[in-house]
């Protein structure tokens, strides 16, 4: 689905600077960030500790044969389906759960009940109509236990179910005989109908155009709930924000519509000769060999009876798709249709197609849709894994943007980079969640966020950067990414404020992957691990831990601090330069730099040094400096006075407070305390040493006869450090005495 708040610049203006006030004291707790025991379990037979599917991984499957017909006057869909459900789990199943998503549009649905007065993207936008499923029949065919059965005799005769129970968007069917574990099967036949909403939670619906209605049908048939090794039956209701979690299978779909309609559907068309004209079939064959877009049915042919086979009032279109978790389709008399070949890395081909009304037909709009579709699918296939379906179809509709296997619905009014953006996003969803089948209802970030991330790379590449965007200033972006009022990314979508979904499901997880890729792991190493995650979990059901474990195992890095900070909590990042001083007060001997982690998120550090003569150099520190320190002091080999020291000079980290990132001599002087109160001679009854405190260049210096001078670092509150020797001096409030600790030994000195 497309994010709601498309224009990010606008969002940034809206939230502007949040709580960026300088915290003087660090709140960082390194044990909270890096502490052992990130994973709550040690893996299982179904999910390996390495992030792979376990040695006994199982998944149930559902194959659908569906016959459906469209009444375009009444906007009524009438269907009957036969689901062949296979129970691969180790459990006997005594009942089945189904998803009845159309029931969201019943007046008394839970989803309607939670729509706030201010309105929502979800539900039917207040349309007054008789929505929801009318289930007219449910039948079950149990397995025939006799041996040596053919495909035809493996099921007993169907029996009608009278006692099925419907609760909001779920239906429960009790079984007379349980389905046996590890391969048991059952056949379920369901007959239903519903009236389509015009605006179906921004995921399906009906658009009026001047040449007829565009029907975009999705969540249009009763679907199996997923039974898995995490929750058993996944029965969270469809409320609107949370998307879908579905089993894989093969779909055979017969769609009966008025003959002046063109139908497109997930998968491949099985009977072109029955539904296209001879000329159109030839043009489709030409398109299948063409990298340029070929018009199959042009704007001037709409309403032309010769552009449709004309023997019957109605036609049945037959489609098939394998390895799919869903199926969606579109039907309209208004469609312009064009197509071009998709070249896949293995040498196989697919076909990009677009259908849209004349209202969308211009070169700054949908006339480029097939070019966008082809480029998008080819990019993702080359970069991650190959596109698996026979066609990729972009349909203009009144949805903002919504994805299904092999077919997507995008806003008919989009133009230029906005149409590219939504098309590329919806087709990116083929990889997440159509191929990598995560549970969208619980973990929106695993499909929307991962998809938004791959969209960035695709957009950079498209047509030599036609729609490439400049790099973001992450310091500024941090006020949006890390805003205080947001829930953590790991929050289920129905559990977060609707306004936060764009941030938490799309932008923030995507930026997290970019940070991991560019600032923590490096592009090559990250891409290898991300690709491996896709490979391991293609057509399977990964959880967040499977993702975290895969990235850690493949890259060989401990990343618990990153998962905790970015995904599981909403931790802020604020790296600060606390102070800079010269070794022995002499710039030619090098500088001692102290940096501090002010907030809870640790990250590696990049520091740029600019000397008085203008030379620049950079120093990188790994995140491990924060594993047991709030502050870190290191020596930098400068040989002349410094003009500036700057943390994160390229603004690549989401640092919420830039004001403490820079040091220069003026800042150093301005921050310097009046040290005259410390000046004097101090002696100890414990050792025969006299320490003379003097001030030189705004630094307190400890002078001991016969010893090199100690240039102390002011740590505040009467505390001074000499990091090179692990020496710490703490004055009392009156400055009449101090305690000196050297490697844990403490000596008391009194003013003479
Ligand atoms: Zn999306």
Topology, please?
Blueprint: H1 8-15, H2 30-34, E1 61-71, E2 76-87, E3 93-99, H3 110-113, E4 134-142, E5 159-160, E6 165-167, E7 170-179, E8 184-195, E9 199-200, E10 204-209, E11 212-217, E12 223-224, E13 227-228, E14 232-233, E15 249-258, E16 262-265, E17 268-269, H4 272-275, H5 278-287, E18 294-297, E19 314-324, E20 329-332, E21 336-343, E22 349-356, H6 369-383, E23 391-397, E24 401-404, E25 407-411, H7 416-428, H8 430-435, H9 448-461, H10 474-481, H11 501-521, H12 523-537, H13 544-555, H14 560-568, E26 575-582, E27 591-597, E28 605-611, E29 616-621, E30 631-636, E31 642-647, E32 662-663, H15 665-671, E33 680-683, E34 690-696, E35 699-703, E36 710-711, E37 713-716, E38 719-722, E39 727-731, E40 737-742, E41 745-751
Parallel strand pairs: 1-15, 22-23, 23-25
Antiparallel strand pairs: 1-2, 2-8, 3-7, 3-12, 4-5, 4-8, 6-7, 9-10, 10-11, 11-20, 13-14, 15-19, 16-20, 17-19, 18-21, 21-22, 24-25, 26-27, 27-30, 28-29, 28-31, 31-32, 33-34, 33-41, 34-35, 35-36, 37-38, 38-39, 39-40, 40-41
The structure holds zinc ion.
Residues 1-2, 425, 429, 448, 451 line the site of zinc ion.
Describe the structure.
With 752 residues, the chain is of the alpha+beta class. It has 15 helices and 41 strands. Strands 36-35-34-33-41-40-39-38-37 form a nine-stranded antiparallel beta sheet, with no helix packed on it. Helix 11 (501-521) packs across helix 12. The longest helix is centred in the last third of the chain and has 21 residues, at 501-521. It is elongated and about 110 Å long. The termini are far apart. Residues 6-23 have low confidence and may be disordered. The site of zinc ion has 6 residues, from helix 9.
């Amino acid at each position: 689905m497309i994010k709601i708040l498309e224009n990010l610049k606008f969002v940034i203006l809206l939230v502007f600077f949040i709580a960026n006030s300088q915290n003087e004291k660090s709140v960082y707790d390194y044990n909270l960030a890096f502490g052992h025991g990130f994973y709550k379990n040690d893996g299982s037979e179904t999910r390996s500790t390495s992030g792979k599917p376990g040695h006994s991984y199982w998944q149930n499957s559902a194959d659908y044969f569906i016959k459906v017909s469209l009444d375009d006057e009444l906007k009524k869909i009438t269907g009957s389906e036969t689901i062949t459900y296979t129970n691969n789990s180790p459990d006997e199943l005594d009942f089945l759960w189904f998803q009845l998503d159309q029931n969201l549009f019943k007046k008394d649905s839970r989803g309607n009940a939670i729509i706030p007065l201010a309105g929502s993207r979800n539900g039917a936008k207040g349309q007054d109509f008789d929505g929801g499923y009318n289930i007219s029949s449910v039948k079950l065919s149990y397995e025939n236990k006799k041996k040596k059965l053919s495909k035809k005799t493996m099921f007993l005769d169907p029996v009608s179910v009278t006692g099925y129970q419907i609760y909001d968007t779920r239906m429960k069917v009790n079984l007379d005989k349980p389905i046996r574990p590890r391969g048991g099967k059952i056949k379920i036949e369901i007959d239903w109908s519903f009236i389509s909403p015009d605006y179906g939670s921004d995921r399906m619906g009906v658009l009026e155009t001047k040449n007829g209605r565009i029907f975009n049908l999705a969540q249009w048939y009763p679907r199996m709930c997923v039974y898995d090794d995490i929750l058993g039956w996944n029965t969270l209701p469809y409320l609107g924000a949370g998307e879908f979690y579905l089993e894989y299978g093969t779909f055979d779909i017969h769609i009966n519509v008025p003959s002046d309609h063109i139908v497109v559907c997930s998968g491949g068309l099985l009977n072109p000769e029955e539904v296209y004209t001879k000329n159109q079939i030839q043009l489709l064959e030409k398109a299948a060999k063409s990298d340029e877009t070929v018009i199959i049915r042009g704007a001037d042919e709409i309403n032309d009876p010769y552009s449709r086979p004309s023997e019957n009032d109605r036609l049945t279109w037959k489609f098939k798709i394998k390895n799919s978790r869903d199926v969606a389709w579109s039907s309209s008399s208004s469609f312009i249709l064009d197509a071009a070949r998709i070249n896949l890395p293995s040498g196989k081909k697919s076909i990009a197609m677009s259908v849209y009304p004349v209202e969308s037909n211009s070169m700054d709009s949908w006339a480029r849709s097939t070019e966008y579709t082809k480029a998008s699918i080819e990019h993702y296939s080359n970069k991650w894994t190959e596109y698996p379906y026979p066609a990729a179809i972009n349909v203009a509709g009144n949805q903002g943007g919504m994805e299904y296997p092999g077919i997507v619905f995008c806003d008919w009014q989009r133009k230029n980079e906005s149409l590219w953006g939504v098309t590329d996003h919806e087709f990116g969803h083929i990889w997440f969640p159509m191929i990598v089948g995560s549970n969208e209802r619980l973990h929106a970030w695993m499909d929307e966020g991962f998809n938004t991330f791959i969209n960035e790379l695709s957009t950079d590449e498209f047509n030599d950067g036609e729609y490439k965007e400049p790099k973001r200033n992450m310091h500024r972006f941090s006020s949006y990414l890390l805003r205080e009022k947001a829930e953590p990314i790991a929050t289920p979508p129905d559990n977060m404020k609707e306004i936060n979904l764009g941030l938490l499901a799309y932008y923030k997880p995507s930026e997290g992957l970019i940070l991991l890729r560019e600032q923590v792991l490096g592009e090559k190493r990250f891409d290898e691990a991300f690709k491996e995650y896709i490979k391991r979990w293609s057509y399977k059901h990964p959880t967040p831990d499977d993702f975290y474990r895969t990235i850690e195992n493949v890259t060989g890095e401990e990343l618990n601090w990153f998962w905790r900070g970015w995904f599981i909590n909403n931790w802020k990042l604020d790296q600060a330069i606390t102070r800079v001083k010269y070794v022995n007060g002499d710039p030619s001997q090098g500088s001692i730099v102290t940096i501090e982690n002010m907030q809870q998120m640790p990250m590696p550090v990049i520091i740029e040094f600019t000397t008085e003569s203008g030379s620049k150099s950079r120093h990188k520190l790994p995140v491990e400096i924060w594993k047991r320190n709030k502050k870190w002091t290191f020596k930098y080999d400068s040989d002349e006075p410094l003009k500036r020291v700057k943390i994160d000079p390229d603004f690549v980290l989401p640092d919420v407070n830039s004001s403490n990132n820079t040091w220069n001599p003026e800042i150093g002087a301005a921050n310097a305390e009046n040290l005259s109160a410390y000046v004097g001679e101090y002696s100890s009854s414990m050792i025969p040493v006299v320490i003379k405190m003097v001030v030189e260049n705004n630094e307190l210096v400890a002078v001991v006869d016969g010893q090199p001078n100690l240039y102390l670092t002011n740590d505040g509150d009467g505390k001074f450090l000499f990091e090179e020797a692990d020496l710490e001096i703490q004055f009392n409030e009156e400055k009449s005495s101090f305690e000196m600790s050297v490697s844990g030994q403490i000596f008391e000195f009194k003013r003479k």
